[in-house]
Amino acid sequence: MYQIIKCLVSHLLLFTIFSAFGIKTTIADPNIISKSQWNGVESINELSQQALPIGRVIILHTAGAGCQDVDSCSQQVRNIQKYHLDLHFDDIGYNFLVGNDGNVYEGRGWDLMGAAVKNYNNGSLSVAFIGTFENDPPTDQALEAAQSLLEMGVRTTKLTEDYKVLGHRQLASTLSPGAVLYKIIKQWPHWTRRAR
Ligand SMILES: *[C@@H]1O[C@H](CO)[C@@H](O)[C@H](O)[C@H]1NC(C)=O
Question: What is the pTM of this model?
C-alpha cells in the first residue's frame, strides 16, 4: 500500500513539474479555421508569394459587425471576402482574421501577399480583428489568439524573431484598428512607433 501511494505521489509530483515547465515554455497554437472550413471561394487570380520570413505585422479591424461564434464569424468572413471581390481584389485582402470567439480565420495565410494596406503589402502580414474597436476592446480570447498566432509565426519561421507590429492607422488615413484596440497593441512588445 505504502509503495503504491509513494509511486502515485512521485508521479503526481513529476506531472506537476512537467506541467509547470510546459506552461512556461509552450503557448498553445491558436485554433485556425481554414478557408474551406469557413466556406470561402477560391482566389480569382494567382496571388504573389510573400518573401519569408516576414518582418512586419499590421493590425487592422474590419470596421463591420463583430461576431461571437464559429457560425457568425464564418458568415462575417464570407461577407468580407465577397466585399473584397466586389472591389476587384483577387481574394479576401487579409492574411488572417481574428474573431471575438477566440478563433483565427485563415485569409491568404502566411505565404501569399495580402492586399490590406496600399504600398505595405509586400513584407507585411495583415491580421484583422473582426468588428469595430473604437469604443470596445476585442475579447481576451481574441487578443490571446492574435498573440499566439504571431508566436506560431516566429516558431514556424514565417515571421522574423524581431518582427515589428504596427497599427493600420500608422500607415494610412483610417481609424483602423479602432482607438481602443490601437491602445492595446501599443502595449505589445513588438509594437513600434516607426513605420519604416
Ligand atoms: C517584394 O519585395 C521584394 C524585396 O524588396 C522584391 O524582391 C519583390 O520583387 C517584391 N515583390 C513584389 C510582388 O512586388
Answer: 0.87
